[in-house]
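Supplementary Note 2. Why include the ligand at all?

Several targets in our set were suspected to adopt different conformations when bound, so apo predictions alone were not considered sufficient. For every target with a known small-molecule partner we therefore ran a joint prediction. The input for iron/sulfur cluster is given below.
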Amino acid sequence: MPKPEFAADCRRCAALCCVSLAFDRSRQFAFDKPAGLPCPHLSPDDRCCIHHRLVERGFAGCARYDCLGAGQRVTEEVLPGCHWREGPAAAGRVFEAFRVLRNIHAALELLDSAASLPLSSSELESCRRLSRRLAPATPWTEPALAELEDGPVFHEVRAFLESLRGSVARSGQRRLPIVTGSTEAPADRSARPRAAGSGSANSR
Ligand code: SF4
Ligand code: SF4
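The joint prediction is reproduced in token form.
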């Protein structure tokens, strides 16, 4: 099973988070932005004009956001050559793929963490089986993403993680990783857009 890249690499992405995601004016974001519209700080070459001053300019949420590698993967693997600037149809396809793939990467990261717990052999096998479904050997396509989302896998991941409370207690960890299981972008609502400084090749 190929392990996906979990680190965002904005240089290989078309600023998907800066357009597709919404954010509300708050301590994290200096103004409101609706989903689907480019942030006013986004330059025509899909780079952030205030990248080096995000916190100073009131966009700490951007500095904290992490797409977990989904952005560059959609741009390069799922829909290469399809850019959201081409129009609403293209944008809809790109943003939908980004939403689903971000959920996939979040679930895979949680399963990775779960695999390091003191699991029984059957729990470990369940963990690996779920991971294989989320990281198939063949590249993701739009139909494959849609089919996955229509299926039960996110709910199964959540149920599996919730079943690990005993293993978490044995490991001494205080919290059980929980997947939202939602088909909506999970934890992103608190820290929408992406940006610099999330410990990866974020360079926009
Ligand atoms: S953080 Fe945003 S710009 Fe960077 S790779 Fe992810 S989606 Fe793309
Ligand atoms: S990183 Fe934040 S401030 Fe910069 S363009 Fe993206 S959404 Fe706007």
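Residues 8-10, 13, 15-17, 67, 71-72, 194, 202, 204 surround iron/sulfur cluster (ligand 1) (CB under 6 Å). Confidence is low (pLDDT under 50) at residues 179-201. Comparable summaries for the other entries are listed in the accompanying table.
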